[in-house]
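Hi support team,

I submitted a single chain yesterday and got back a structure, but I'm not sure I'm reading the token output correctly. Could someone confirm the output below corresponds to the sequence I sent? I've pasted both exactly as they appear in my results page.

Thanks,
R.
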Amino acid sequence: MTEYLIYFPILIPLITAIAIKLSWPIKITRKLILYFGPILTLACSIYIYNKFDKLNSNVDIINIFDNITISLGIEPISMVFLIMVNTLWLVATAYSLGYMISNNEKRLGNFFLFFSISISCANGAALSSNLITLFIFYELLTISTYPLVTHKGDEQSKASGRKYLLILLGTSLCFFLPAIGYVYHLSGGLEFVDQGLLFTNLLPDQINNLEISILLILFVFGISKAAVMPFHSWLPAAMVAPTPVSALLHAVAVVKVGVFSIIKILVYTFGIELLHGLNIVDLLVYICGFTIIATSIIALKQDNLKRLLAYSTISQLSYVIIAILILTPSAIIAATMHLIAHAVSKITLFFAAGAIYTSTGFTKISEMNGIGKNLKVVCFAFTLGAMSLIGLPILVGFTSKWYIVQSAASDSQWIILSVITISTLLNIGYFTPIIYKFFFTQKNANKKFKHLPLTINFAILSCCILMVILFLYPTLIIEVIKNVQ
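Hi R., thanks for writing in. Yes, this is the structure output for that exact sequence:
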């Protein structure tokens, strides 16, 4: 029966979504349901972590045909991702409730309904034991987040939603699905296995470097939630959605499922040893390096705070991919660490941006002169999130960048080291002026500041604490990832 615990992180958010839909008119039960779902799912995820050694076998859901089964399983990278998603779901729920009510957002029941469904899909992707199951949950996540992107219902939101669907579904059907089909054609299976053993039984004349290279390209560009150029423009476009949706897209579910999927496929389908020496890996490093630097330069020019954070996210996602492309055991730790570090740091930044909007109505950086004097907690939290992404000590972003740099240096990856150095300087270039504007410029004396709900400040402070805890105790993640074979 222990194996069937693996269903719970998928089912509990779905049941929560149904309960939200049915009971939303009853005010007294709203908060109870909204908080009970994330708390129960997180508790279940932690229990699965504690029973990890007993969950070695996969649980089949539906057998489609020979060697193609929708099934769930657990391994170290999935375990880390699962706990991250559900921890941030709980924090994001507290924040979202305060934000949506304070800004008089409509259709709150629908918002939290699709929010819960998207978490279920993200958990399903985390627990997928093969490529077809991952693909199904990956696509369901795109569909379930579409109503969140278009939540406001205006023409701009609808246009952004169309772009969102076109790019994410289009790349999946044109690249991701054919790649899965070709893996099945070559190996006769789709399972995620230790050390990428799926291809090891093939003779040299059955698979060659060109075929491996084509597959790798199809997977990296087919998983456009990772926002590698040129399939990145959906992410800034989606910033028309309410800030809690932006936080969900950037930190909790959508883009994180993208980079998580790439890590998982490289480790458990190809195996890092198989990819050593391939020229296509070097090409992907250059593409990711270009994405990191180009989007950081674009971020420098942004006046809209959420758009700046969106381009920063695109850059930071390629950090994760460029880290895993170092193709060493330490690179797996580095990539996973940065996935977590970016999630916690970026959700802090979006929460702060949303709090500034809620209190002042400001969306442009040029409007935010001196607001740190009235919004001390919010602006301090934004500063910590920015410092974490820059990579300063006492914050988790330093730890993840340290592991990336260490992995790159040990493998003499000087291009990656150069990209990280240039990107860090650009991070300083677009974050420092914002912090300066918060604290060291004269505020508008006539501006009135709206009081922020307690839940918003609670969520922001919780994320700040998480950034420090993960810096002080990185072994919470590292010891799990070291079990990757």
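A quick pointer for reading it: DSSP finds 19 helices and two strands in the chain. Let us know if anything else looks off.

Best,
Support desk
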